[in-house]
Automatic annotation (TrEMBL):
Sorted UniProt keywords: Membrane, Transmembrane, Transmembrane helix
Domain of life: Bacteria
Name of the protein described by the UniProt record: DUF308 domain-containing protein
Residue ranges of domain YqeB PH in the record: 9-159
InterPro entries linked to this entry: CysS_C, PH_YqeB
Matches recorded under Pfam families: bPH_10, CysS_C
Domain Cysteinyl-tRNA ligase anticodon binding: from-to ranges: 175-226
Annotated source species: Actinomadura bangladeshensis
């Protein structure tokens, strides 16, 4: 957390915190890599087992190079996981008149009058407008208590969760309470959610729904929706 001369405060992962995540992920996945050696040998010892072919290929590598290689690959995979996750995380600059959300290639400025409530939900920072419309939902796994303290200090209404939680309803095709465009977007989003490589499409369709005043929440593969909340 950094305070600036212009009166704003920036919340972001600290260097030591980011470093600790790299180390923890590297150690964890290096351990997983180390365990692959005995697992592969066990699979090869069975008369029949799934993935036996890859296991035989793995154990054909001589020691100690097999163990060293598995540990190294696991450690690198852990570090890569944290690196790509950090690219999606936003830093948050809060002042009395605006909120700035920033990450590589992305900047969203939200003026104070646009903000009704702020809360954190499943590792994402969510900002709602005065009528409950969703104006921002970005990946941000910073400490919730710290964020609550900063937003509250600047006069923003921090909530423990969505204040309009009770208004969410399960979506079904051609829901009569929704306009045709909203139903079409939700149908496209439901289809996109079935594919493992369509994360960007799912996010963009959420943004399109937010532009027409529809807020979406996912529970597994099922979508729930609500319109703007009551003022």
């Amino acid at each position: 957390m950094r305070s600036h001369l212009d009166g704003s405060t920036t919340l972001e992962r600290s260097a030591w915190g980011q470093g600790a995540l790299y180390v923890a992920a590297a150690v964890l996945l290096a351990g997983v890599g180390w365990l692959l050696d005995p697992l592969a040998n066990w699979l090869v010892s069975l008369k029949w087992a799934p993935m036996r072919g890859p296991a035989e290929l793995l154990v054909s590598v001589p020691e100690p190079w097999l163990t060293i290689g598995l540990i190294a690959v696991g450690a690198l995979a852990g570090m890569a996981l944290i690196f790509f996750d950090s690219l999606e995380q936003v830093s948050v600059s809060v002042s009395g008149d605006r909120v700035l959300l920033k990450r590589a290639g992305f900047l969203q400025e939200i003026v104070r009058e646009q903000v009704g409530h702020v809360f954190q939900e499943k590792g994402r920072l969510v900002l709602l407008g005065p009528k409950g419309e969703e104006i921002a939902r970005e990946k941000c796994d910073l400490n919730g208590r710290r964020m609550a303290a900063v937003f509250t200090e600047y006069g923003y209404a921090w909530a423990d969760g969505d204040p309009y939680e009770d208004e969410f309803r399960i979506w079904a095709p051609k829901t009569p309470e929704l306009p045709d465009l909203a139903n079409a977007l939700l149908a496209a989003r439901a289809q996109a959610m079935k594919s493992s490589d369509s994360g960007d499409s799912v996010k963009e369709l959420r943004r399109e729904l937010a532009r027409i005043g529809i807020v979406v929440r996912d529970k597994g593969k099922q979508q729930y929706w609500r319109g703007p909340g009551r003022q």
